[in-house]
Amino acid sequence: MDTAEVERLIEDGIEDAEATVTLPRAPDEDHEDAHFAAVVVSPAFEGKTLVQQHQLVYDALGDRMTTDIHALEMKTYTPEEYESRESA
């Protein structure tokens, strides 16, 4: 699984989501490409707790979280939160 596929799964699974997925550390031989980091921006996160936002991402990835993805660092934002973070 590569970063583009993880992005596609998140964007397909969460309404109006924009995902940026990277590999946060050098791949190791045993779990190459299994560690990902994602920044996800979506109006679907509005009014949800951080735990609920992360659950939406996990739901979008489905069984891949137990088969293809060993670890996922994530930051989730509403569009307004993301814009204010960018301008700070």
From TrEMBL:
Tell me the superkingdom of the source: Archaea
Q: Which family does it belong to?
A: Belongs to the BolA/IbaG family.
Listed Pfam families: BolA
Coiled-coil stretches: none
What name does UniProt use for this protein? BolA family protein
Organism of origin is: Halobium palmae
Taxonomy of the source species: Archaea, Methanobacteriati, Methanobacteriota, Stenosarchaea group, Halobacteria
